[in-house]
Specification:
By secondary structure, the chain is mainly β. The protein has four helices and 18 strands. Strands 2-4-5-6-7-8-9-10-11-12-13-14-15-16-17-18 form a 16-stranded antiparallel β-barrel. It starts with a strand and ends with a strand.
Length: about 425
């Protein structure tokens, strides 16, 4: 990406020699004409015959055509700078803001994409602030579609839905700790390790601790790491992260447990890899997210009771990019399987399968008009099986209108399929 850059000498107030510094303005403006269509279909997990009103609409389709932003590369503007401190040390900052290119409504309202300050040298880099979590990188780097638009990595879509539905969320973003984390401390290995690279991150929950409690809520805490190896055509990396989605305890100031405690943790592990054959680049990802929730009741005559719920989301994606003249063909196929932990509940004879799954196929083409400007087209389709079992997370709509989901898993309309396309223009500066 070609970027506008201003380099200047930072004048020392005391009159001593100045330190060399740089400031860079960069960004992407990306807009597309997009179309989305989602379909819900009737299901019935009861012995009762559905009512006439329920059968009036056995399928419902919702569609939308819109001018979208960031369908090939997220629209954004940012500022970054470095200062040479001497002795191999450098200080830096990175402020990046997303905006809606189609309307300009959210331009520079916050630096929620990234807001960090760092110190780097031969030891590596220490980075503080809001940044991408380690587990997100494998969902993006090894996705031919760049994890945006109708064709974005299905695994990334599901991961974001899990964080949105289960927590912790934040005023900045509902899917925090799945893509980015605030209040983080990160460390990156130096770049001269013969192809090996890595990072670790810890995000503080910043909850208030009370003197009359033995512990404080850890809701919002994240920790994780990513380590990989890149050499020539090969790039492979593994990442792990744990997010505390919920951690509540009802207790009196006297220290007496007075209510139910809920503790929920999301554990993500993924492996991504790519190999460039020159005429073709293959890439893929394997992922597992475990949603472990524990509910402990208040003291009863029989003591405190603990109930657990352990759901799993297992995903796989394979993709490719193929250079064609001034352009690039892209394709990916992904599947995510939801394994539902029923706990003490047994499946009924009419609903033996309480799991759900999503399959997604995406095709795209990018035609480069220059190094900074490109035209692109992407089309994608997703099919959902047993969407009524987990509509909040498995209903992947490709960015358009929400599915019509009714019946609470008993009888009603469930998400079944989604299609979409993007035709757009991207300019980087």
């Amino acid at each position: 990406m070609r970027m506008s850059s201003i380099t200047f000498a930072a004048l020392a107030v005391s009159g001593v020699a100045s330190a060399q510094s740089s400031l860079t303005l960069f960004g992407v403006a990306d807009t597309a004409v997009s179309h989305y269509s989602v379909k819900s279909a009737f299901y019935n997990n009861t012995l009762a015959l559905p009512s006439a009103s329920a059968l009036a609409f056995t399928e419902v389709t919702r569609s939308q055509t819109a001018l979208s932003s960031g369908a090939n590369s997220s629209s954004r503007v940012g500022f970054r700078g470095t200062e040479d401190l001497g002795g191999g040390l450098a200080a830096g900052f990175w402020l990046e803001s997303g905006f809606t290119q189609d309307s300009g409504a959210t331009a520079l309202t916050s630096f929620s994409r990234r807001s960090t300050v760092s110190l780097s040298g031969g030891f590596g880099e220490l980075r503080l602030g809001r940044d991408y979590v380690p587990t997100y990188w494998n969902e993006s780097v090894f996705d031919p579609m760049g994890a945006v638009g109708v064709g974005e990595n299905l695994i990334k879509s599901i991961s974001g839905n899990i964080a949105t539905a289960r927590g912790p969320g934040s005023p900045i973003a509902a899917n925090d700790n799945a893509i980015r984390a605030s209040n983080s401390v990160g460390y990156f290995l130096p770049r001269n390790l013969g192809g090996f690279y890595g990072q670790v991150m810890y995000a503080l929950p910043e909850n208030v601790k009370h003197s009359y409690l033995s512990d404080s809520s850890q809701r919002g805490r994240y920790y994780g790491g990513r380590f990989g190896y890149a050499n020539g055509p090969l790039d492979v990396a593994v990442a792990y992260g744990q997010s505390t989605a919920a951690d509540t305890l009802v207790i009196s100031e006297a220290g007496v447990v007075a209510g139910t405690r809920l503790s929920e943790k999301l554990r993500t592990i993924n492996l991504g890899a790519s190999y460039d054959f020159g005429v073709l680049k293959l890439m893929g990802e394997l992922s597992q997210v475990k949603d472990k929730a524990e509910t402990t009741t208040a003291p009863l005559s029989a003591g405190r009771l603990t109930f657990t719920d352990n759901d799993e989301y297992n995903g796989a994606m394979i993709g490719m990019t193929l250079p064609v003249g001034a352009g690039l063909l892209k394709a990916s196929y992904a599947r995510v399987k939801f394994k539902n932990d029923l706990g003490s509940a047994a499946p009924s004879l009419l609903a033996l399968d309480r799991d759900a799954s999503v399959n997604k196929l995406a095709l795209g083409y990018v035609h480069n008009l220059s190094k900074r400007t490109a035209l692109y087209a992407t089309v994608a389709r997703a099919r959902i099986k047993n969407g009524q079992n987990n509509p909040a997370i498995m209903a992947v709509g490709l960015g358009g209108p929400a599915f019509l989901s009714t019946g609470s898993g008993v009888a009603g309309l469930a998400p079944r399929s989604a299609t979409g396309y993007d035709f757009g223009l991207r300019h980087a500066f």
